[in-house]
Design brief:
By secondary structure, this protein is α+β, with helices and mostly antiparallel strands. The protein has helices spanning about 1-10, 30, 45-60; strands at about 20-25, 40, 75. About 35% of the residues lie in helices and about 15% in strands.
């Protein structure tokens, strides 16, 4: 995100006045950087657990395995790279 914001600033755009920038995964630097980044924070640990369960099931029962779509909740961690989003 830092690179994108730098490039936008160099091209004359102001974040968030002219353009909003949103990241993904809620990395720690998103809270330290200035402006703090707006990012979508997923539950990576739960996502990994569910993916592992499906992989093990597929390995153990390849003939009967049916992939499942799994939704893992997350949340928007608001920062200073977007105008008000709510």
């Amino acid at each position: 995100m830092m690179g994108a914001i730098t490039a936008l600033n160099e091209d004359g755009y102001k974040v968030p006045n002219d353009i909003s920038v949103v990241g993904y995964d809620g990395i720690d630097i998103s809270r330290i950087a200035r402006p703090s980044y707006t990012t979508y924070h997923q539950n990576s640990e739960e996502l990994g657990r569910e993916a592992s369960r499906q992989l093990i099931e597929q390995i153990q029962s390849p003939e009967t395995f049916t992939p499942k779509v799994i939704y893992i909740d997350g949340y928007v961690q608001e920062g200073g790279t977007t105008k008000s989003i709510l």
